[in-house]
Amino acid sequence: MLNTCHTLEKQGFKVTYLNVNRQGFIDPEELRKSIKNDTILITIMFANNEIGTIQPIEMISKIAKMYNIIFHTDSVQACGNVPIDVQKMGIDSLSLSGHKLYAPKGIGALYVKNGIHFEKFMDGGHQERDKRAGTENVAGIVGLGKACEIATNNLKWHMSHLKELRDYYIEKIKEKIPDAILNGGMENRLPGNSNFSFPSVDGEELLFLLDAKGICASAGSACTSGSSKPSHVLSSIGLSDELASKALRVTFGEDNTKEDVDYLVDSICEIIERSKK
What we know:
By secondary structure, the protein is α/β, with parallel strands linked by helices. The chain has helices at residues 2-10, 28-34, 57-66, 86-89, 127-130, 138-176, 203-212, 232-236, 241-245, 258-276, and strands at residues 41-45, 70-74, 93-97, 108-112, 181-182, 193-197, 247-251. It has two domains: 2-147, Type I PLP-dependent aspartate aminotransferase-like (Major domain) (Aspartate Aminotransferase, domain 2, 3-Layer(aba) Sandwich), CATH 3.40.640.10; 156-276, Aspartate Aminotransferase, domain 1 (Alpha-Beta Complex), CATH 3.90.1150. It contains ten helices and seven strands. Strands 1-2-3-4 form a four-stranded mixed sheet, covered by helices on one side. α4 (86-89) links the parallel β2 (70-74) and β3.
């Protein structure tokens, strides 16, 4: 989303970026005051990919409607993990990615409310009602549709299972590593997301040693992997560059168990103890 906004700025559009608090939430009043006479779009991540913060979508939508502005949300992290009703929430446009809800990689979808028109970004044939040229990935589309069906039917259990693992992990980390800092709040957080900064160990070293133990985690989002800069998400919530560089993002999935969490916590503790020697 940031890169798209930067591209629009190069094309002459004016873009306003909102601040967030320590938990990663925007201030709806700041949003309202930021609206100008020529504002045409409000766009925001439904849920943050690094610290799991779920924004007040319905409140943002109401503000957009007050000023007759189109409201778009990037729901890549949210779809399949929390309930989403585009009509009830007043969402005009929504983007999602299939692999986040166990669909094949390389397939996504864009929801656009009837009556909203937008320019196509790819010239060619007249597929997708003249909105996107190119032959459709039928196998991927079918896979995404089935994944959405399964996710909808299993959502209640899925949320409960991931939340149980997340809370168990956070509790264990706080108990065994008192100086660990939880990034983001516990309220309105994605059920399977946890992000801690561990002041006593280098983040890159922690990732490397966890990988050697067969544990897949990350220092930030996959979108910024390979970047040596501190996470802009963690910087925006007030973390120093040092603490941001010592962050570990862990997300849980349907196949994870409490035994997996115990192994993860024990591995982190072992690595931290070894780093102190």
